[in-house]
Request: fold
Amino acid sequence: MPHCIIEHTPNLPMDTAQLLQTAHQVMINSGLFGTADIKTRAFVVNDYVLGASSVGKGEFIHIIIRLLDGRTMEQKQALTSNMAKTLRTRLPNVPSITVDIIDMVRESYAKDVV
Reply:
């Protein structure tokens, strides 16, 4: 725990492996989680419409960070801000980079790891 889920268009000027490594390192650098607990994955979104553009035109990155509840608002804001700023530094021409945190309810979360 946590899960860092990256949704992105296929036409970014950075390959998926670099994008994964960059986001994963931000999660590690936050100091909020044990390195072994962080799970980062990416999905290419092939079908999309951005604003008034045509289908499949434009670029975006949207990151969803799912974590167990209990972090302060300041911790969550620092994490989303650092993620967005780090990606903006590496991808200055991507028009839309968004980051959202979703709290998962600790009492209803189940985990079974072998």
Observations:
- The helical segments are 16-29, 73-90.
